[in-house]
Write a structure and sequence with these properties.
By secondary structure, the chain is α/β, with parallel strands linked by helices. The chain has 5 domains: 119 residues, CBS-domain (Roll), CATH 3.10.580; 92 residues, 2-Layer Sandwich (Beta-Lactamase), CATH 3.30.450; 173 residues, 3-Layer(aba) Sandwich (Rossmann fold), CATH 3.40.50; 80 residues, Helicase, Ruva Protein, domain 3; 67 residues, Arc Repressor Mutant, subunit A (Orthogonal Bundle). The radius of gyration is 42 Å and the shape is elongated. It starts with 10 loop residues before the first helix and ends with a helix. The N terminus and C terminus are likely disordered.
Length: 606
């Protein structure tokens, strides 16, 4: 057992506080009588101040009497005066080592002030370690019994030596029924038996314990320092709920993809169509089509929402594998415990005697086709190692399987992170990076291809019009100016989501500044951000600044009101007269509450 688990007991926990003690002047004959009456094996000899001066054992005393020492001599004459002592706070193991080194059977225990506290014998040492081990064993048993995971322990013959309450619940077998019996009689070929037979660990093994119950298991052999396997320990975690949530997420993603397909217009029969009129982006599309005709591995880089998945579809559509499966994997969404089973599949019931066929993994499903590894930069290092092994060998084993499965797949990876930077930081394997980065395609952000915004807005609105059963939705010019001038940190996906939000919440069939304000996106498109207030150093300066702001607002309101009156409240004409975009005029009207002022003014004039 690990030394870190069992802390070393102290001398004070093992020493004897009941011991023989006599004055240094006590005659030998009286000492003999006391030792016989009280069954002392030794006595400590002290002076008148009760300070320790020596020690006499029963064997030593008998030997001296036999050699002719007078029975009336004081005990000090034959006592061992050169004593080795110990402290109560000393580690028991160190005190034991001292006793072994000097071949002595007892150590007086002395306090800081030289006072006698007890005596430590060889028997006390043995009892001290035994008590500590027993206490630690009880603690360990309590911990293992209360762990949620199922814990099984077997010896080298497969006999069950521990079976906690978690194992009772998960396997449906009471500890009282299986303890001391062969595990194979209840669960033939179970994982701990494999660990004993092979002396190899099994980690993150997923299986279907019984129909609808999915588990992740870890089994490790218990090996002595000389290399002998004496048993195995296995832990099993029920991940049925996690698996169910992942399945629901996959179903939701499929429904979303089906909805996106419904949004495709007759003019755009391919749901992976990547719209762009930008020269640099068109060059990337051309490169994607050219590389599509090969089997080269492609790394697609670009910010979130730029269309990496669409570009992967274009590569696949232009390949000789176009009619085969395209399996998409979001690497950031797979829990580490389920990675192997999701990617490589599992043999159902492999560890419980079942013979069902199990479930294929993503690589097996993509055989002959293409596998798209999205967000590959989010993979932990140990997952990267497993992925690299499959890429290199082009074969793998299902979890719990013994037959290798060979696959022929084309790899496309995508990430919004700088993989080369991750490599330099030790967060991404360099050998995997070179395997994936055979051909690199980088999609420009929407901020750098603003010429695409008009066409993308038109494309998305035509689809949204059909999905939400609205007439052809129009966009006013000042709104389009806001769209073009905005930076779109979420890129094309943000544009599409915002348009869908607007179409769902808007009234009518025309997107205006008022529409944007009603659905709460106008401030965002204006780039308006909250600015934290800073306490002024000079109150007089603050008053001047506030008065100046008020004067400027008042003057601005007067100028805009005058322009609106001259143009009979025609906002487009007023904006032209003022020499500002209509979007700016609408923004000023709303923030300065000018329409209310104009209404009051018009009433006063009439």
């Amino acid at each position: 057992m690990n030394d870190m688990w069992i802390s070393d007991p102290k001398v004070s926990e093992a020493m004897t506080t009941e011991y023989g003690q006599v004055d240094e002047s006590t005659p030998l004959v009286e000492v003999i009588k006391l030792m016989l009456q009280k069954s002392w094996e030794e006595v400590l000899v002290v002076d008148k101040s009760h300070n320790l001066v020596g020690l006499v054992t029963k064997e030593h005393l008998v030997s001296r009497i036999a050699n002719g020492y007078g029975q009336h001599l004081p005990i000090k004459e034959i006592a061992c005066l050169d004593l080795i002592t110990t402290k109560p706070e000393e580690d028991l193991s160190k005190a034991r080592d001292v006793m072994r080194r000097y071949n002595i059977g007892r150590l007086p225990v002395i306090g800081d002030k030289g006072n006698m506290l007890g005596i430590l014998t060889a028997k006390d040492v043995c009892n001290g370690f035994s008590t500590k081990l027993e206490r630690q064993g009880e603690q360990l048993y309590s911990v293992m019994e209360n762990i949620v995971e199922a814990i099984q322990v077997v010896d080298c013959a497969g006999i069950v030596s521990f079976w906690n309450s978690g194992a009772e619940k998960l396997f449906g077998i009471k500890a009282a029924d299986i303890m001391g019996k062969k595990l194979g009689d209840y669960l033939p070929g179970d994982l701990p038996l494999k660990a004993v037979a092979t002396s190899q660990p099994f980690r993150n093994i997923m299986g279907e314990l019984r129909e609808g119950v999915f588990v992740v298991r870890h089994a490790v052999p218990v090996v002595t320092p000389n290399g002998q396997t004496i048993g195995a320990v296995c832990t099993t975690v029920d991940v049925t709920q996690m698996k169910s949530l992942m399945d629901k997420l996959e179903q939701a993603n499929n429904r979303l993809k089906n909805l996106e397909r419904l949004m495709v217009s007759k003019e755009d029969p391919q749901d992976f169509l990547f719209y762009t009129v930008d020269d640099k982006t068109q060059k990337v599309l051309a490169q994607a089509k050219r590389v599509g005709s090969t089997d080269a591995t492609v790394m697609i880089q670009g910010q979130s929402g730029t269309g990496k998945e669409l570009l992967a579809n274009i590569i696949c559509h232009n390949s000789k594998r176009a009619k085969k499966a395209l399996i998409e994997v979001n690497c950031s969404a797979i829990p580490e415990a389920l990675f192997e089973s999701e990617m490589f599949g599992y043999e159902s019931g492999a560890f419980t005697g079942g013979d069902r066929s199990g479930k294929p993994g993503k690589f097996e499903m993509a055989n002959g086709g293409t596998i798209f590894l999205d967000e590959v930069g989010e993979l932990p290092l140990d997952m990267q190692a497993k992925l690299l092994r499959v890429i290199q060998e082009r074969r793998f084993y299902r979890v719990g399987g013994t037959k290798p499965i060979e696959v022929d797949v084309r790899l496309i990876a995508a990430t919004n992170r700088d993989i080369s930077m991750l490599v330099s930081e030790g967060k991404f394997r360099e050998d995997l990076f070179y395997r994936l980065n055979v051909v690199k395609l980088e999609i420009p952000s929407l901020e750098n291809r603003k010429c695409d915004i008009l066409g993308l807005v038109d494309k998305f609105l035509r689809k949204l019009s059909r999905v939400y059963e609205k007439d052809n939705i129009m966009v006013e010019q000042d709104v389009m100016e806001l769209f073009v001038n905005y930076d779109w940190p979420g890129n094309v996906r943000q544009l599409q989501n915002m348009l869908e939000n607007i179409v769902i919440l808007m009234e009518g069939d025309s997107i205006s500044i008022e529409s944007l304000s009603d659905v709460g996106v106008l401030d965002l498109l204006h780039g308006k951000k909250g600015i934290p207030e800073v306490a002024p150093e000079n109150p007089e300066v603050e008053a001047i600044d506030r008065n100046l702001d008020l004067l400027m607002e008042k003057r601005e309101r007067e100028v805009i009101n005058k322009a609106l009156r001259q143009c009979s409240n025609n906002k487009a004409s007023a904006a032209k007269l003022l020499g500002i975009p209509r979007s700016t005029l609408y923004y000023k009207i709303r923030t300065l509450k000018i329409e209310e002022d104009s209404l009051i003014l018009n009433r006063s004039l009439t």
